[in-house]
Amino acid sequence: MPYHSPQLLTEIGRTAQTLRIEVLKMVYHAQSGHIGGAFSAAEIIAALYFHHLRLDPARPDWPERDRMLVSKGHCSALLYAALAVRGFFPIEELSSFRQLDSRLQGHPDRLKLPGVEMSAGPLGHGIAVGAGMALALRMASAKPSSQSAPSSRASAGRVYVLLGDGEINAGIVWEGAMTAAKYRLGNMTAILDYNGIQQTGATADVLPTEPILDKWEAFGWHVQEIHGHNVGDILGALDRADEVHARPSMIVARTTKGKGVGFMEYDHRWHGMPPNTEQFERAMTELQEGLTQWQA
Amino acid sequence: MAGMMSMRKAYGEALVRLGRTRADVVALSADVSNSDYSYLFDQAFPDRFFNVGIAEQCLVDVAAGLAYCGKVPFANTFAFLFATRALEMVRSHLCYGGANVKLMAAYAGLSDSFDGPTHHAITDLAIMRSLPNMTVVVPGDPVAVDRLLPQVAAWEGPVYFRLNRNEVPLLFDESYAPVIGKAVTLREGQDVTLVCCGLMVSRALEAAAQLERQRVRARVLEVHTLKPIDEEAIVRAATETGALVTAEEHTIVGGLGSAVAEVISERAPVPLRRVGLRDRFAESGPYEALLEKYGLSVPSIVEAAQSAMAAKRR
């Protein structure tokens, strides 16, 4: 497993916190948007967009890029923050989130904004659409056989999918999972942001998903479980998944909904609620303090 | 009439020809490839054919993923499944997301007659037509399938291509040259226009022949593309003949009849009669008998033409 320097881990941890700050500003300014599930995925998104993914902001349509599908489209604010900080479009544009004439639609629109690979919002699409992409990329690659490839990383771009845990209630997720396994799509990695909370309560109460690791294994996937706010864990699991052949890979990332702001953590009400001014200021103070911790 | 020919077989063969000329064409199935004849493509190009199982939502999503990476996917399953079970996928990825997927809607109308109303597709045109960015094409016979399929592949954006299960009358010869978006005048006439698509084209032509014996000169306008609809041809027909009849293997709600009504009510209001299912489900039975019982018949068209012409004279 490749070595990840402490500097890299610190840098990505700090970037994740920066993205949280941008998300908070966007949702507060728009008085609309989804904070909880954005905060739970901040380290995952930062690790992908600021280290692991093969992409070029100057060439969003580069054929050999990796395809990153944010299937939990309601964490659009986090995706937009990552794309802007990564250089796909000006950071100032983030203030247009969810406003008229903006490229930053409530949920991501692939035809409007560079860097968005899939229009998302209705939940569940990422695995099946990603399977179609992985099939196409494997056809395009010089090494069509999953058996002969020394590393699927050597071929055309890979497909990455970020899913929410409530999202996997949807049957289409499991249809897509079976298709990805049938076609032995070793060039596909999914990350499950397993924060345990969905819109109206705990996932365990709404529609139990455990035993989650067994489920994905039974569907024919390679499965890893990690601490989803530990950058070293995330990077290591992504590297490991790249080396899995002939099977799609699932990384179950145990996370905390609303991570980074004490009064938002573990509270399903912060799934889709914008903060008022007092809440915004308290949250911003806490996030800024978190940022200084990374700079220490 | 030059006899009958299987539309699904013609489709499967046309798809194989398309696969030979276009390497970017791939085909997908929800495990009904021996019904819709897409198995012929599987036999010819096994590396470009994907069977996702009995999972129509997955069928459309996987096709969208292939399209996002530059392929031109032809997704195959029954018409009603595209229009109902997989509709959200169609809307979100094909129509909103711009995935260049072609929906090959098999067993449309009442053509899967014995399987009954669960398998009939009588609301699919209304549903598909209502979606922004969707193109809706209904070939009239096997020759039309062959002529239109390469155009479907070359068309930029999603297409809903509505296919009949059965042997259907062979209407067209080598001279037939349909173009997506352009209506075809199959018969000239000044007294009334029979606007038709799909299987009902043959019935409209028969109705026109019967009307001629009553000294009524009926124009027959084939509108194989319901969307984008050829407004000019319809307005011209309304202006020049003063009365319209629509005939479609679909309910009278939201399909060809509605599309024509939308055009003429704004641009050239004339009497209109719609032939189609009267907003109800059909039942199991032999195809021909079902078409007769549910009003998709030559006498229904003739009667509708007389009624429209009578309204014109008032």
What would you say this structure looks like, in words?
The complex is a heterodimer of chains A (296) and B (314). Chain A is built from ten helices and seven strands. Chain A has 296 residues and is α/β, with parallel strands linked by helices. Chain A has one domain: 3-Layer(aba) Sandwich (Rossmann fold). In chain A, the strands form two sheets. A five-stranded parallel β-sheet of chain A has the order 1-2-3-7-6, with helices on both faces. In chain A, strands 4-5 form a two-stranded antiparallel sheet. About 4% of the residues of chain A have low confidence. A seven-stranded mixed β-sheet of chain B has the order 3-2-4-5-7-6-12, sandwiched between helices. Chain B has a five-stranded mixed β-sheet with strand order 9-11-10-13-14, sandwiched between helices. A two-stranded antiparallel ribbon of chain B has the order 1-8. Chain B is globular, with a radius of gyration of 19 Å. Chain B has two domains: 166 residues, 3-Layer(aba) Sandwich (Rossmann fold); 130 residues, 3-Layer(aba) Sandwich (Rossmann fold), CATH 3.40.50. Chain B is α/β, with parallel strands linked by helices. In chain B, helix 1 packs parallel to helix 8 and helix 10 packs across helix 11. In chain B, helix 8 links the parallel strand 6 and strand 7. Chain B contains 13 helices and 14 strands. In chain B, 43% of the residues lie in helices and 20% in strands. The mean pLDDT of chain B is 97. The chains are: A alpha/beta (296), B alpha/beta (314). At the A-B interface, helix 5 and helix 6 of A face helix 4 and helix 6 of B.
